[in-house]
Amino acid sequence: NILILFGPPGAGKGTHGPKIEDLLGIPQLSTGDMLRAAVAAQTEVGKKAQAIMKAGGLVSDDIVVGIIRDRIKEDDCKFGFILDGFPRTLEQTKALDKMLAEEGACVTKVIELQVPDEVLEERICGRWIHKKSGRSYHVKFAPPKSMKTDSNGKPVAESMLDDETGEPLMQRPDDTATALVKRLAGYHGETVPILKHYEPKGVVKTVNANQKMDGVWTEVLASLSRK
Ligand code: AP5
Ligand code: ZN
Questions:
Q1: pTM for this predicted structure
Q2: How far apart are CA 66 and CA 184, in angstroms?
Q3: Ligand that lies nearest to the alpha carbon of residue 216, given by its number in the listed order
Q4: 30-54, pLDDT tens digit by residue?
Q5: pLDDT, tens only, 61-93
Q6: Which of 2, 155, 173, 189 is 20 to 30 A from 201 (CA-CA)?
Q7: Is 39 in the pocket of ligand 1 (CB under 6 A)?
């Protein structure tokens, strides 16, 4: 099972990825999470990626392909994996197909989370994340149990804590309306053409991700069992 979770920023890749991971017992590999970890650790890759990510641009193909190449060699990827946020360019797509072909494997499904651009700003600007686990919350759609609001209805930062660990949540530096414009331009310009590459192979399954999370999950589940 080699799955690609596909969709624009805020589509729900990070929301549904961990649930597929639990269901199928294969790891979710998020290049965004891996790059954020590299930035936090200030590795060479992290230093190169930091400013690009904050502005909403794409990190170079060499870097992300290298990260994925190393990661999928690890033992827990033996029976498959879920790619979140990769591939994002045709160059990355070709590199992925080549890596897989060397192992006699190929992409089994591309789950496209379809959402109109207009709803994404609210999702992105209301998101809070637990950095260590990658769990994401939303001030309106998925608030943490601990959330308190001030007299203007704004969430109190100190009350934004992870449900499982009680650790503080944070907002991503690229979750601004300005960076989102750039991220969406990259998505439509560089990433959407990837679908044309996979469509003839019959592996693309489209899900309506512009509905409540539970409804999206039901459709994701159905797409997993659809041939
Ligand atoms: P990455 O981390 O991959 O960010 P992204 O693609 O922009 O996607 P997001 O994480 O914003 O969206 P998501 O679909 O995971 O949404 P989520 O489920 O959290 O990449 C970040 C950056 O890293 C890139 O910009 C780039 O610089 C670099 N990078 C990464 N990979 C790269 C690559 N391959 N090549 C080059 N550069 C790369 O949901 C969002 C919010 O909405 C949450 O708050 C959630 O609670 C809420 N929500 C989810 N579903 C619903 C729903 N149905 N209804 C209401 N709210 C919902
Ligand atoms: Zn994500």
A1: 0.96
A2: 24
A3: 1
A4: 999 999 999 999 999 999 999 999 9
A5: 999 999 999 999 999 999 999 999 999 999 999
A6: 189
A7: no
